Each structure stands twice: as C-alpha cells, then as structure tokens.
Amino acid sequence: MNNSTKNNSTISAVIMERKNSNKLHLNTFMVVILIMTIFSNIYAQETALKNENNHLVTKPKVIIFDVNETLLDMTPLKISVGKALNGREDLLPLWFSTMLHYSLVETVTENYHHFGEIGTAALIMVAETQGIVINYEDAKESIVTPLRSLPAHADVIPSMKKLKKGGFGIVSLTNSSAKGVETQFKNANLISYFDNRYTVETIQKYKPHLDTYKMVLKDLGVKPEEVLMVAAHAWDLAGAKKAGLQTAFIKRPGKVLYPNVETPDYVVNDLSELVKIFEEKGYFKID
What we know:
Elements: H1 3-56, E1 62-65, H2 75-84, H3 92-108, H4 115-129, H5 136-147, H6 156-165, E2 169-174, H7 178-187, E3 196-199, H8 210-220, E4 227-231, H9 234-242, E5 246-250, E6 266-268, H10 271-281
Parallel strand pairs: 1-2, 1-4, 2-3, 4-5, 5-6
Helix pairs in contact: 2-5, 3-4, 4-5
C-alpha cells in the first residue's frame, strides 16, 4: 500500500470517528432534552396542582368538629363495654360499627331513636352473637355512664386554645343528643371553646346524611367551601366532602381512610399537627 492510500485510509477513519462521535453527542443531547422535558412536565403538573389546591383550600371561617373519638378518648367506654361483654374489650369496634350501621338503617327507613338507644340495642346484638346474656338496663348503663364522662385527648385542649384565638368560628356536630354532648363537654372542660353545639336529633337524620351538614351551614349562613369538617371517621368526612365542605382527617389509633372517596384536604396524626399547618399557612395572622 502506497503513502497516498494510507493517507486516504487514515482520513476516512478520522471522518468516520468524527461522525460516530457527533452521532453519540447528538444522541446524548437528545436524551438530555428528553429528560429535561419530562421533569419540566412533572414540575408544571405539580405546580398546577399546588396552585389549584391553594385556590380551593382557603382559610375556613368555621371549623366543625365531630366529638366522639375525634375530640374525646373512648378508652373508658371500651373498658365498660368490655366488662359488659365478659371482659371482651376487643368487641368494642364491632359494637361501634354495629351502632353506626343501625343509625344509618334508621335514617334510610325514616325512623329515629336516640343514639344511646341504638347503642344499647347494638350492644345487646353483639352480646347475643357471642353467646353472652345481657339485659337492656345493664347494657344501657355500661354505655351511657362512661360515654358522658370521656376525657379529651391530650392534644385537644391546647389546640382548641390556639384555634379559639385564631379567629375561627368553632362548633361541633354529633350523632349524640343535645343533652348528652352538653354533659360530655362540661365533663371534658370543652364548653368554653365552642360557639355552638349541633346535633342530628334536630332533623332526626344521622351523619353522614348530607342534610346534617347542610343544617349547620344554613344556621351559620356560610358557604360549604368556607367550612372545615374535622373528624376521625372516614364515613363522616365522606359526607362532609360530598356536601362541599373542606375536610380534615385525624388519624386516631385504628382509624383509616376510605379509599373510594376523595382524599381529605388535610390528613394529620392529631389536632396539634393541624394547628401547626394552619400556623405555617399564616391562618393565625390578624387580617
């Protein structure tokens, strides 16, 4: 091979190497562009979602609190019901769910008994499924007495003090009777933190029927989106969200969300965590 041929081969090799190098650089550049585009789209979507949420979720004018389990610790009731069921404290969730089940049966069939009456009947039913004999008066006593003396969860009173100073309207909405919740609040030292106490006995329909939330909205003269419902029960928040309210789920022990409905606007471990979020949002600033 002469020098001219060698030179031509060398030149061809260099050209080919440059082409391959350029092709590699082009491919790398295209990959970088693709990655940047993907991240840009993700960021845009997250920003849009954040802006949408900020637009929809504003400082509530009124906060509605559920009572039992959300504010009040059910431990004394668990112990009492357990004794009535021959020491079977593990049956409390079954009793509570049975009580809720038949409260909804009453609402759907346009019937009405006080929550305490339904709870007593539910306890007798659960006892029967376990082969335990209990009369009506003993069942009622094991529920009513401890239910009216439940203590507030440790996070509740410190949080209520802050919320009360934050300029929020604060009310409660419960399936219990007016007399029952008044007694509960007095015994738990919660009376002074609430502007009003609402109960479903006014319209004789149990939560989460939409009319229970609308009853409160109508009485207060506020729009649904101006109100936040706080509860430890997914079924309660499902109704509140359907009625157009903002919602906050308090993850009390053993409580979980219902996957088939819209996620609450706030999901927190306790009430103090919700207060902290409000502080970060600047909700406690004086307008």
